[in-house]
Amino acid sequence: MFRFDAGLKVYLHREPVDGRKAINGLVVLVEQALCLNPFEPAIYVFRNRRRDRIKLLLWDRTGFWLMIKRLEADRFCWPKDAAVVTLTVEQLHGLLAGIDLAAMQPHPVRIYTKTS
C-alpha cells in the first residue's frame, strides 16, 4: 500500500456525496461547502451515502489526483464531530483500513521517576 506524506492536511466532508461526482464537482464542494482552497497541500475525503466507498482528492502542483476505495464487506466509520473534520495522515490511513477513529483512545500519560 502507498503512504501519504505526513505533512499533508486531511479534511473530511461530513455529508454523503453523489458517487458520480468527478474532480470538478469535488473541487466545487471543497471551495463552497468546506470553504477551503483545493490547491493547498491537503487531501480532501468524501464518502457515499452507504459508506462503502470513499474518494480522496489531492492536488500535486501539476494536476489533481482522484482516488477511490470500495469496501466489499464493511462500512467506513465516519467521524461525527464538527462541520469540517481534520485528521492526521496516520488517522486517514486508519480510516482507509476500516478502523473506527471515534473508538480509539490515546494511551495514558505515564511519568517515570528515577528512584535511588
Order of helices and strands: EHEEEEH
The count of helical stretches stands at 2
Largest sheet: 5 strands, mixed
Number of domains: 1
Strand content: 25-35%
Shape: globular
- The span between the termini is 48 Å
On the 0 to 100 scale, the average pLDDT is 85
Q: Identify the strand order in the major beta sheet.
A: 4-3-2-1-5
Structural class: alpha+beta
Low-confidence stretches: none
Radius of gyration: 16 Å
Q: Helical percent range? A: 10-25%
What is the β-strand count?
A: 5
Explained architecture:
It comes from Methylomonas fluvii. InterPro entries: Transposase_IS66_Orf2 (IPR008878). This is IS66 family insertion sequence element accessory protein TnpB. 16% of the residues lie in helices and 25% in strands. The mean pLDDT is 85. The protein is built from 2 helices and 5 strands. A 5-stranded mixed β-sheet has the order 4-3-2-1-5. The protein has 116 residues and is of the alpha+beta class. The longest helix is centred in the N-terminal third of the chain and has 10 residues, at 23-32. It has one domain (9-103).
